[in-house]
Design brief:
single chain; 5 helices; 3 domains; 79% helix; two-stranded antiparallel sheet; mainly alpha; 149 residues
């Protein structure tokens, strides 16, 4: 660049200083800022929440510990109630099956969903017969579904 005269020399010196400044920012300051940012993020990720007592472990109050224990008891009780409910449903289904009073509507809905999923009539009937459903009930359920469709 040639701007001519003294003004031109000052302009060229200014451009050179700007280039050196830009080079310094790109080469040194931006990488340092990026590294500092990464260090900050890493420290933030590994820092444990709560007050720290001694070895960096959070200090929890007795109320927090009691609430946690109560929540664990509630979860355990809910899981045991769910297990009891599952067992009772199974026993009820077995009792109904033994008495021959199976829910016909459930059988028709099963046949409907199986047909919609792409299974053919013979495969559905074979599966139901393998599970202990009597032939007349299976055929009757198929005819009931045909009447609904």
């Amino acid at each position: 660049m040639n701007f001519g005269g003294l003004k031109g020399i000052y302009m060229e010196i200014g451009f050179c200083l700007l280039a050196i400044l830009f080079y310094g920012i790109v080469t040194f300051i931006l990488p340092l800022a990026a590294i500092a940012g990464l260090v900050f993020v890493i420290i933030k990720l590994f820092k444990k929440p709560g007050k720290s007592g001694g070895g960096g472990r959070p200090v929890r109050s007795e109320a927090e510990l009691a609430a946690e224990a109560a929540m664990a008891n509630v979860i355990e009780e809910a899981e045991s109630m769910e297990a009891i409910a599952r067992r009772k449903r199974h026993e009820l289904a077995e009792a109904m099956k033994a008495k021959g009073r199976l829910d016909r509507l459930a059988l028709v809905y099963y046949i409907e969903s199986a047909l919609k999923s792409g299974l053919d009539r013979a495969a559905i009937a074979a599966a139901l017969k393998a599970k202990g459903w009597p032939d007349p009930e299976v055929e009757s359920a198929f005819s009931s579904y045909s009447g609904l469709a």
